[in-house]
User: Which sequence fits this backbone?
């Protein structure tokens, strides 16, 4: 140990000497890499971006030589070992971020462990003919730089880890500073689980002190082959400026349209379930309701019965707006993901019990309808026709290509809206989370790549598609 420290001291002093001269600029922190920069007792956590990426690169070189069965073993170990930790992780996430509800986080984490696909997602394509055979296979990128949000920090981290390892990559996680404690803990645990299962350390790494600057350093690091960004529009834009391949999962503003043919009570219940789930911090959660005039009163009554508080006093709506929306037009962090009761009380609105959702009737231009609030606040906009409803939903979704919901029993309208919205997820007659595979068919993901178009990402998106051509046979038709 002493020898190692002495060696490190010597390297540092050599670099300092070099930097005094006219030689090339050397980044001291990332030049002194390897184990000396590892945080003791926290496998996978490093002091610098350079050291973390270097360790991940070495690990990936070993990993890419392993069999698919070995990748599968690592993923099975994650699913099994994380299961008993779900409740602890849900509580840690709530305690650190202050957002959402523990019971809903437990559901999200179990969903992640159950339904994030592994190596089976890497489907091979093959063409054969008189000239032989050509294979298309999905192979690793190398080290992926994955940026995770404050809103679903643990789910995104586990979901990305499973998909990216399945595709044969190592991962550098750049996590939100507001969720750094739980993310560090989680990276370390995942690292230990994978190491114990397949004997490779540092396939999943992060740094001790995440920051915007460190995330930007990672984005331009030459050994990061792919950026996978889950966050708001700012960070997706920043990543797209890096010159690297980016899978960008950005903001959404999903509307839920209810027409007069819908099963109104079920629609109301589904909307309350979806919009109040984890206090609306999911990007796919209903952020507004667009309802036909003929059924809106009935819908609102059923939404109240399903656990919502209706605010009708204009002054109270204005007060809610005043406390939750900042002057720059973005939602106040203080109230993102908070319980409805906390928001109501802060606005001086008396509240009994623990309502799931705050609802109010507004027009389509109201900031609660046009802003991604990420709070259990749901505006309801009234329209007079299907055409007006569809146009309103398109206006509210604002070309983000994220998520939309429709409640209707009219097949033609369901079809027309699904086509016209052009969203990555479209849910018919269910809560928005059905589109993530919770009480809905299909796999799950917490990285829905909207601006870059991969949509509901799985292992296959974290892989490079390569063509391998054999000219001498293997055509047996
Ligand atoms: P955020 O954009 O504030 O932060 C996301 C991540 O980006 C964090 O790790 C943060 O540290 C980093 N970051 C932010 N600005 C950066 C910059 N300029 N340079 C480098 N890194 C930067 O988002 P948030 O508040 O944590 O999460 C909520 C947002 O994320 C919402 O808009 C939500 O819709 C979106 N989101 C989208 C998806 C999806 O799958 N499409 C999933 C979850 C969240």
Assistant:
């Amino acid at each position: 140990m002493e020898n190692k420290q002495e060696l490190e001291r010597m390297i540092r002093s050599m670099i300092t000497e070099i930097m005094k001269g006219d030689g090339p600029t050397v980044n001291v922190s990332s030049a002194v890499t390897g184990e000396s920069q590892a945080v003791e007792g926290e496998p996978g956590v490093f002091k610098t971006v350079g050291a973390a990426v270097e360790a991940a690169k070495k690990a990936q070189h070993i990993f890419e030589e392993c069999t698919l069965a070995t990748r599968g073993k690592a993923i099975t170990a994650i699913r099994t070992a994380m299961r008993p930790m779900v409740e602890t992780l849900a509580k840690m996430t709530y305690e650190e971020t202050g957002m959402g509800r523990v019971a809903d986080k437990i559901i999200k984490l179990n969903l992640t462990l159950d339904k994030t696909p592994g190596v089976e997602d890497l489907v091979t394509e093959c063409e054969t003919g008189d000239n032989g055979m050509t294979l298309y296979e999905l192979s690793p990128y190398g080290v992926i730089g994955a940026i995770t949000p404050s809103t679903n920090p643990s789910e995104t981290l586990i979901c990305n880890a499973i998909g990216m390892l399945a595709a044969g990559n190592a991962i550098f996680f750049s996590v939100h500073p507001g969720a750094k404690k739980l993310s560090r803990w989680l990276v370390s645990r995942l690292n230990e689980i994978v190491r114990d299962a397949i004997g490779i350390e540092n396939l999943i790494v992060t740094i001790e002190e995440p920051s915007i600057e460190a995330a930007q350093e990672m984005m331009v690091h030459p050994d990061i082959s792919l950026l996978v960004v889950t966050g708001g529009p700012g960070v997706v834009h920043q990543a797209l400026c890096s010159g690297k391949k980016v899978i960008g999962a950005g903001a959404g503003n999903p509307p839920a349209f209810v027409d007069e043919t819908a099963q109104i009570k079920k629609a109301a219940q589904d909307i309350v379930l979806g919009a109040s789930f984890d206090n609306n911090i999911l990007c796919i959660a209903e952020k507004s309701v667009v309802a036909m005039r003929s059924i809106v009163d009935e819908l609102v009554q059923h939404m109240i019965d399903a656990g919502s508080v209706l605010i009708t006093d204009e002054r109270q709506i204005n007060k809610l707006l005043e406390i939750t929306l900042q002057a720059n037009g973005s939602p106040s962090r203080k109230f993102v993901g908070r319980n409805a009761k906390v928001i109501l009380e802060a606005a001086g609105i008396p509240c009994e019990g623990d309502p799931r959702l705050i609802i109010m009737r507004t027009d389509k231009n109201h900031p609660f309808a046009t802003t991604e609030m990420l709070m259990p606040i749901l505006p309801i906009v009234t329209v007079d026709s299907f055409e007006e409803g569809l146009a309103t939903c398109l206006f509210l979704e604002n070309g983000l290509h994220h998520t939309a919901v429709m409640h209707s029993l009219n097949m033609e309208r369901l079809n027309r809206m699904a086509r016209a919205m052009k969203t990555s997820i479209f849910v018919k007659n269910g809560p928005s989370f059905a589109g993530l595979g919770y009480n809905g068919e299909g796999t799950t993901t917490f990285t829905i790549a909207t601006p870059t178009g991969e949509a509901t990402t799985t292992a296959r998106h974290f892989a490079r598609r390569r063509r391998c051509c054999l000219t001498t046979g293997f055509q047996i038709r």
